């Protein structure tokens, strides 16, 4: 046969084939009641696929030609939640930000599995307290309790799959969520049990206690951003690192006293166990954040960061980690407050160094959309003001629209001399290391006393 003709026939066949398939285009939209920002962002892993602005009816729409099937998440400041998207899907949601997760409902294609995922999320939240009481139990009874909670959920999923048509991908994600959630508690058990019972050493476990570990997949591509899976990995690595140190290192209980040493175990374990890039980078990042935010001695964090660079120098989060490292180093006691610019209520730029001049200052942070945190914080600060009349308490506002901030100063009758607005949260986070919302910075005449104080526990 003539080659050109052959190609032409192949081309025709291919063209026919695609037109016969159902459309791959994906529609994802919905309505947000009481919006807390103007837009919604859709993510696959850490990649933002698209941003959709709300219209005058608070509705948003994503229209994608196709998707990489599976777990996605959408973000509407300051919350996020999962959505499974597959080719040809048309999904609607409705939510009210007053009760973000509780009010969220999906409809359209793939709605059953998405609503199921959400229901599991809420059930897991509710179960937390109950499971915490189980940690006192002996290993066998603990395992039975956890397994029976797991089996109830598996049965619910099974029933759903009988009445609804679940896709393989949806089924797998839902099942993984149930399984890994139950594994988390088993990884945590020896540590929580010891602490709750006040036992001197780790409780002996039956030899088959960790049997489920044979089913763990370390390279599950589509799950690296899925909370149950990712959280499991964190607990699992913590457990393995502890055991590794206990069995392999000479000094007993070294890790309890030495954060650097324990975290070095973690780095080595991640390096040897996790090959999937995204998960590996994220877990490495998690160790770095966790360790650096414990504010170890300067010479220790230097050793840590060197080792980190050796194992994960090309980490996708390396700028953030290096920034955090620099930030933590710059905020050591006895150093000067950084030259960081904020705005007063009249719109003038002021350096926090100048705010701290000639007085004892406590900087604390708040954000308007986090209403409960704001109320608690202001109450707490009022209490501290009475207790420590020598200190000036300075509120630094983050992640709030400027007009809204000004309005809140009026409505909540905050002292304008003690309130400042920050423009760029990334910058605040990097320079002042704001990861913990209850963080505060104590300084005396511009010199840092404790840059990692907590408004609840440090006073
Ligand atoms: Zn060790």
Describe the 3D structure.
49% of the residues lie in helices and 19% in strands. The chain is built from 15 helices and 15 strands. Bound molecules: zinc ion. The site of zinc ion has 6 residues, from helix 7 and helix 8.
Topology:
Layout: H1 3-20, E1 26-33, E2 39-44, E3 47-53, E4 59-64, E5 70-76, E6 79-85, E7 90-96, H2 100-103, E8 105-108, H3 111-134, H4 139-163, H5 168-197, H6 227-248, H7 254-257, H8 259-273, H9 277-292, H10 298-312, H11 318-330, E9 341-343, E10 349-351, H12 352-355, E11 360-366, H13 371-387, E12 391-397, H14 402-411, E13 419-421, H15 425-432, E14 439-444, E15 447-454
Parallel strand pairs: 1-7, 11-12, 12-13
Antiparallel strand pairs: 1-4, 2-3, 2-5, 5-6, 7-8, 9-10, 11-14, 14-15
Helix pairs in contact: 3-4, 3-5, 4-5, 5-6, 6-8, 8-9, 8-10, 9-10, 9-11, 10-11, 11-15
Bound molecules: zinc ion.
Residues 245, 249, 254-255, 261, 265 line the site of zinc ion.
């Amino acid at each position: 046969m003539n080659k050109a003709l052959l190609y032409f026939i192949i081309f025709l066949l291919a063209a026919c084939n695609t037109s016969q398939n159902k459309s791959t285009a994906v529609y994802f939209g919905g309505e947000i009641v009481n919006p807390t920002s103007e837009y919604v962002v859709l993510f696959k892993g850490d990649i933002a696929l698209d941003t959709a602005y709300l219209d005058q009816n608070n509705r948003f729409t994503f229209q994608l030609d196709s998707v990489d099937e599976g777990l996605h998440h959408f973000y509407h400041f300051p919350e996020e939640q999962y959505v499974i998207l597959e080719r040809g899907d048309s999904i609607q949601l409705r939510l009210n930000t007053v009760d973000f997760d509780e009010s969220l409902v999906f409809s359209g294609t793939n709605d059953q599995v998405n609503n199921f995922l959400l229901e599991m999320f809420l059930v897991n939240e509710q179960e937390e307290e109950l499971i915490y009481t189980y940690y006192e139990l002996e290993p066998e009874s603990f395992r039975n309790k956890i397994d029976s909670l797991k089996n109830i959920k598996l049965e619910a999923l099974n029933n759903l799959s009988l009445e609804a048509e679940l896709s393989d991908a949806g089924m797998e994600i839902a099942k993984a969520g149930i399984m890994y959630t139950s594994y988390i508690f088993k990884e945590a058990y020896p540590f929580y049990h010891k602490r709750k019972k006040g036992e001197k050493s780790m409780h002996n476990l039956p030899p088959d206690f960790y049997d489920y570990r044979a089913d763990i997949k370390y390279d599950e591509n589509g799950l690296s951003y899925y909370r149950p899976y990712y959280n499991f990995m964190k607990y699992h690595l913590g457990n393995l690192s502890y055991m590794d140190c206990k069995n392999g290192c000479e000094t007993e209980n070294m890790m309890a006293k030495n954060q650097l040493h324990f975290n070095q175990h973690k780095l080595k374990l991640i390096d040897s166990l996790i090959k999937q890039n995204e998960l590996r980078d994220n877990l490495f990042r998690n160790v770095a954040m966790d360790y650096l935010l414990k504010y170890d001695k300067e010479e220790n964090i230097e050793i840590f960061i060197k080792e980190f660079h050796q194992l994960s120098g090309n980490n996708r989060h390396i700028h953030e980690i290096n920034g955090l490292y620099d930030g933590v180093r710059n905020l050591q006691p006895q150093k000067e407050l950084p030259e960081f610019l904020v705005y007063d209520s009249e719109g003038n730029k002021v350096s926090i160094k100048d705010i701290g001049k000639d007085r004892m200052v406590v900087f604390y942070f708040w954000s308007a959309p986090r209403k409960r945190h704001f109320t608690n914080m202001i109450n707490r600060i009022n209490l501290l003001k009475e207790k420590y009349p020598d200190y000036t308490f300075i509120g630094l506002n983050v992640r709030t629209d400027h007009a809204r901030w000004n309005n809140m100063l009026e409505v909540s009758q905050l002292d304008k001399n003690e309130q400042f607005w920050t423009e760029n949260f990334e910058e605040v986070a990097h320079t002042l290391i704001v990861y913990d919302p209850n963080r505060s910075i104590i300084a005396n005449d511009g010199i840092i006393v404790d840059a990692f104080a907590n408004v609840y526990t440090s006073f």
